[in-house]
Design a protein that fits this description.
heterodimer; A: 115 residues; mainly beta; 5-stranded antiparallel beta sheet; 11 strands; 0% helix; B: 112 residues; 4-stranded antiparallel beta sheet; globular
């Protein structure tokens, strides 16, 4: 099935540094979402974006919905050890019925933070 | 307030067998979706249930089937298991018409 493009597969940063990761798609989405997954757990929603160009923050996290609706980025500022995990982007289209449509995920980026 | 509950947490099955996984949605949610997450991959959509009917389906064979009960809980059934069915199976619930999915911790299925 289709997956969104996330690269690189892994990122290694020093505690206190900022990190940016982006996500691209060949098709348009109406909603972009960023999830974090810890080992043995399900994905947890970090930020949801609903409008092209939208910039949204959640604490040290900032995400943007690309103008073309085919991309999004996530920035984490002043990283801390608990930021370690796998970060997934996901796109969603709105069905004509108004029902919640499926999520299409990227492969994820594994973030490591060195103390 | 309990989130999404999945059972069992781990399961080992033999090729050719059948398996049933269970999911209880978050309180107030009426829609359940199932995802398969292979090692090193993002979750892949299997299907979604609302009002006890399958509403959307991903690119999975008919060996994968499901059910939703009147209390909104759901089951995922996989018949004739293959080695490639080994994965983390995630259940996500939502309220129809409202954004936001809540995921469970998943069931780790190993087929040997």
């Amino acid at each position: 099935g289709q997956q969104l493009n996330q690269s690189p597969q892994s990122m290694f940063i020093q505690e206190g540094e900022d990190v940016s990761m982006n996500c691209t798609s060949s098709s348009i989405f109406n909603t972009w979402l960023w999830y974090k997954q810890d080992p043995g757990e399900g994905p947890v929603l970090l930020i949801a974006l609903y409008k092209a160009g939208e910039l949204t923050s959640n604490g040290r996290l900032t995400a943007q919905f690309g103008i073309t609706r085919k991309d999004s980025f996530l920035n984490i500022s002043a990283s801390i050890p608990s930021d370690v995990g796998i970060y997934f982007c996901a796109g969603q289209r709105t069905l004509y019925t108004g029902a919640n449509s499926k999520l299409t995920f990227g492969k994820g980026i594994t973030l490591s933070v060195r103390p | 307030d309990a989130g999404v509950t999945q059972s069992p947490t781990h399961l080992i099955k033999t090729r050719g067998q059948q398996v049933t996984l269970r999911c209880s949605p978050k309180s107030g949610h009426d829609t359940v979706s199932w995802y398969q997450q292979a090692l090193g991959q993002g979750p892949q959509f299997i299907f979604q249930y609302y009002e006890e009917e399958e509403r959307q389906r991903g690119n999975f064979p008919d060996r994968f089937s499901g059910h939703q009960f009147p209390n909104y809980s759901s089951e995922l059934n996989v018949n004739a298991l293959l080695l490639g069915d080994s994965a983390l199976y995630l259940c996500a619930s939502s309220a129809q018409g409202a954004g936001g999915y809540t995921f469970g911790s998943g069931t780790r299925l190993t087929v040997v």
